[in-house]
Design brief:
Blueprint: H1 3-11, H2 18-30, H3 35-48, H4 52-63, E1 78-83, H5 91-101, E2 105-110, H6 120-125, H7 136-146, E3 148-152, H8 159-170, H9 177-190, E4 195-202, H10 211-227, E5 231-238, E6 246-247, H11 249-260, H12 267-284, H13 288-300, H14 303-314, H15 320-323, E7 333-338, E8 343-348, H16 350-359, E9 376-379, E10 386-387, E11 392-398, H17 404-413, E12 415-418, E13 428-432
Parallel strand pairs: 1-2, 1-4, 2-3, 4-5
Antiparallel strand pairs: 5-13, 6-9, 7-11, 8-10, 8-12, 9-11
Helix pairs in contact: 1-3, 2-4, 2-8, 4-9, 4-10, 5-11, 5-12, 5-14, 8-9, 9-10, 12-13, 16-17
This protein binds uracil (URA).
Residues 165, 174, 179-180, 183-184, 207 line the site of uracil.
Amino acid sequence: MTIYDLITKKKHGEELSCDEIKYLVKGFTDGSIPDYQMSAFCMAVYFCGMTDRETSDLTMAMAESGDTVDLSAFGELSCDKHSSGGVGDKTTLIVAPIVASLGGIVAKMSGRGLGHTGGTVDKLESIPGYKTELTPDEFMSISKKCGLCVCGQSGNLAPADKKLYALRDVTATVDSIPLIVSSIMSKKIAAGSKNIMLDVKCGSGAFMKTVEDAKLLAEGMVTIGKMCGRNTKALITNMDVPLGFAVGNSLEVIEAIDVLKGKTKGDIREVSVSLASGLVASLKGIDADQAKLLCEKAIDDGTAFMKFKEWISCQGGNAEYADNTDLFPKAKIEYQIKSTHEGYISHMDAEKIGLSSCELGAGRKTKTDIIDLSAGLVLSKKTGDFVKSGDVIATLYTNDESRISRAEEVFVSALEFSEEMPEEMTLVIDNVG
Ligand code: URA
């Protein structure tokens, strides 16, 4: 077998065997297959696609290229969720304690933010003392004791994907469904959970801009997750506008806590409950509507909030911040953006809102940037709201005054107004699996 033969085979749209895919992944990871040949292979996949069987073999080969987490001690109870990335997406902070309070074991790894999207690990680090770097033993013992543990990604999880993603990024081959599916699912499979809930975001702030593309990705991931032996479901949710009102690390943690306390309702609660329900339905063998009632109850009777506090304490964080969110340090500068228009907000481009928050210091433009955990913005109005000239649309928070003007410029460029009330957006657009 040679890599030349495999490129030729794929170029002609033929199906590769499991052994051929293993050879490819092993050779690329150990450096014996050079970048230029792997690039040619990826381009052939881009044009000719892969069968589900090939995608599943590629996923497994990449999952097995590095460390894998063994959660078999938790039987059928281990749960994970994944979001394809959005703005104001603090759902993990809400879904995880709901599911854990209902008997699931959420032992998961999360990422950091880059560009317009945030990352759960950064958000959690805004809680003083919270430890995101854990040894494998600490990870397992907290998961066992509390039913919930969220830490940063291990350095050697699916290294084949890390290397391949970097190559795809510079060879215009990111946007191939089998390559995206295998990339995301290899990390989820390596992370070990039996039950996986995928939140595929769709709209201006999402990786997938159209419902059709989001559906293709969701169906691909669910199919491959199941073929790899994981109970996988997906929701397609709206990311045409930020989720909730807060964007920025500690601001989002505060909003998530308010949802768990039952103080904040609306889109963020609805999407979080829908995601949690999918996992709870799998765990308990009940339908999604019954599961939804249990999840709503876990918020309303305070058990999800108690679980949140237990989790934060178990990971070294100060849970008093959850009881009293006024303890979170506030950014020195608050600046209100006021409307210069009268009319309905017909569109609020979520990506631009995320970039505005990034300009305030809440996000990273490059992987090594240091972020300001108290920076970000809180919306007062969202798509569909009527505003009069002078009404506050958002408040910006930062510790660096020089950032305000650029952030305001980006924020304002996200807004479109109309005299007509726009159609109400569907939050949970579809479910798969
Ligand atoms: N996110 C990933 O992890 N991989 C992709 O290929 C695309 C988005």
